[in-house]
Structure formats: C-alpha cells, structure tokens
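Shift notes (night). Ran LytTR family transcriptional regulator DNA-binding domain-containing protein while the centrifuge was going.
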Amino acid sequence: MHFPVTRDPKNNDEIVWLDISQVVSIQTWERSVIFHTLDGEYYPVLPKISTLEKHLDHFGFRRLDRTNLVHLCKIQSFDEERSVVFFEEPITPGSKYSTVSHGERRLVKKELANWKQLGIKRKQKQQEGG
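Came back to this:
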C-alpha cells in the first residue's frame, strides 16, 4: 500500500508516494499524522482542495470557484448564461459539469478559444500530411 505524502506538515513540499513497508511507526502530533521511516518523517496529504490546488496547478488544474478544481484541458463547452463548464459533447442530462465563478469566466472563455485554435491547427497539419 502507498500513501501520498510530503516532507512538511503543511503539505507545501513535493508529493511523493510512501510505501507502507518503509514505515517504522506512525505518530499523531498536533492533530496531524506523522509516518516515521528510517530516513525521516512524512505527512499524509490532507484532502483539502487548497492543498490539491497547489500541487495540481502545473498539471493544468484551476480553481474555477470555491468548490471546484477543474482540469482545464478537459473542458468541452461553456454555458455562459448558467456559468457552467461541461466535459463532454453532446451535453446530456447526465453530463458531468462544474460551476464557474464570475471572476473566472474570462479565463474559461480565453482557454476555450486557445484550444479551439490549436485543434484547428492540428487538423490542418494532419490534412497536409504533417
């Protein structure tokens, strides 16, 4: 079994996967859990959206409102009227979606325009045999 952990209690360091077979003891301290190994201490990644936001930014995830962290390249469409992004097309009653805050609407529109342009360029390149 493996746990996602960091070297610091606030989960600011890089996330690594700790094999439970390397753990010599587990301790609680100040409302945290600490995994002790022969080479140091590790702290489990706390399941908070703010922690995930820090670590997933370089993978293309962005917080689009207080409750949603979205993989931007997975967005297929944006309903501006309802301020909702969808991850598949065509949209059905069961389609997955996320809400978008007013402040992030401009980013979503810009990113969608960029992806569409990239898609057009890729298609042209494929048609040209490149």
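The CA atoms of residues 11 and 51 lie 7 Å apart. Strands lie at 2-6, 16-19, 23-29, 32-37, 40-44, 61-65, 68-71, 77-79, 84-86, 97-99.
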